[in-house]
């Protein structure tokens, strides 16, 4: 198992070797000078892949599995090293030998072709850490959003929303706002599902029968929760001053606002884990890999947020 020299270290995983992940990880390392605040930065993955992107040897914690980098051309032979980089980083964080991990984008299709049993990072991290439930948040300085349902067809969304799932997701989100973001009295806004939040039942009863009962129960538990709110009026600047995070009912309801407001500095955060994990809010971008066009801003934002979350947990 690779080792980290400092419990304050923030680990940046390799991600898909053929994508922009290794490039932006190395660029973030370089731009930040190998550290952020009290946190040294280390790259974890295949040394050759990182070297091809300009990383100095001392910056890399090597995995046992090896990979090759051909930009834009993913190879199933690299899957073992990609997976090991994530698992090794989680192992170090779970043992207290790293303060946080920042994961570069992976290609789920390539990994699944080799028998990888998880639909993405979040589920894999939940399994590795033994967390009862992991929740995806997209966060920036302007906005924080949590999608209740994630990668499912829009036709399946209504049947996937339950009062219990709203309460569970909201509870994890509120706890994370306290522990990871240092907000002593967090405020949560809950979006409706239908246009105009159902218009008192005239455009759907999901708000009346499912969403509002969850809000009522959360308030009864002492939480500051508002909603269900019409999603077309809850994301403008004035509206956002009334809450610290928004719980949305489906993927695009959450991601369109943050990608509109914070396309280059949005960060994917996994809530509910015993460790800190962030990720840039973009994919492998095979079409520009190796061209020098990959923008490291989202990766840098992810590193900054990981450091801030680790510091918040340490207080």
Short description:
The chain has helices spanning 21-31, 47-52, 79-94, 108-113, 121-129, 157-160, 163-179, 206-220, 237-240, 251-261, 297-314; strands spanning 10-13, 35-36, 39-45, 60-62, 100-102, 135-139, 144-147, 187-191, 224-229, 245-248, 267-271, 277-280.
The outline comes out as globular
Determine and state the CATH class of the largest domain: Alpha Beta
Question: Roughly how many Å is the radius of gyration?
Answer: 20 Å
CATH architectural designation of the largest domain: 3-Layer(aba) Sandwich
Percent range for helical residues? 25-40%
Mean pLDDT: 96
- CATH homologous superfamily caption of the largest domain: Isopropylmalate Dehydrogenase
Q: What's the main sheet like?
A: 12 strands, mixed
- Strand tally: 12
Fold blueprint:
Elements: E1 10-13, H1 21-31, E2 35-36, E3 39-45, H2 47-52, E4 60-62, H3 79-94, E5 100-102, H4 108-113, H5 121-129, E6 135-139, E7 144-147, H6 157-160, H7 163-179, E8 187-191, H8 206-220, E9 224-229, H9 237-240, E10 245-248, H10 251-261, E11 267-271, E12 277-280, H11 297-314
Parallel strand pairs: 1-3, 1-5, 3-4, 5-12, 7-10, 8-9, 8-10
Antiparallel strand pairs: 2-3, 6-7, 6-11, 11-12
């Amino acid at each position: 198992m690779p080792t980290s020299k400092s419990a304050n270290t923030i680990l940046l995983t390799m991600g898909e070797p053929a994508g922009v992940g290794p490039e932006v990880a190395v660029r973030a390392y370089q731009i930040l000078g190998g550290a952020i605040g009290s946190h040294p930065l280390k790259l974890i993955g295949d040394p050759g892949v990182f070297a091809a992107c300009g990383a100095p040897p001392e910056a890399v914690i090597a995995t046992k599995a090896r990979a090759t980098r051909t930009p834009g051309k993913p190879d199933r032979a690299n899957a073992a090293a990609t997976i090991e980089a994530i698992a090794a980083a989680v192992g170090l964080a779970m043992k207290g030998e790293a303060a946080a991990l920042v994961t570069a984008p992976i290609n789920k299709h390539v990994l699944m072709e080799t028998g990888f049993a998880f639909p993405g990072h979040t589920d894999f991290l939940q399994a590795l850490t033994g967390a009862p439930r992991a929740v995806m948040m997209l966060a920036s300085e302007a906005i924080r959003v949590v999608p209740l349902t994630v990668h499912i067809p829009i036709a399946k969304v209504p049947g996937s929303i339950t009062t219990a799932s709203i309460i569970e997701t909201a509870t994890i989100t509120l706890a994370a706002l306290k522990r990871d973001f240092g907000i002593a009295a967090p405020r949560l806004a809950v979006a409706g599902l239908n246009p105009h939040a159902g218009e008192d039942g005239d455009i759907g009863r999901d708000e009346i029968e499912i969403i509002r009962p969850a809000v009522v129960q959360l308030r009864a538990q002492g939480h500051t929760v508002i909603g269900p709110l019409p999603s077309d009026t809850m994301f403008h600047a004035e509206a956002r001053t009334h809450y610290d995070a928004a719980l949305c009912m489906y993927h695009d309801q959450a991601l369109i606002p943050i990608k509109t407001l914070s396309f280059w500095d949005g960060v994917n955060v996994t809530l509910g884990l015993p460790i800190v994990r962030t990720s840039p809010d973009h994919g492998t971008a095979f079409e520009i890999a190796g061209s020098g066009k990959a923008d490291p801003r989202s990766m840098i934002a992810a590193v900054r947020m990981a450091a801030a979350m680790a510091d918040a947990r340490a207080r």
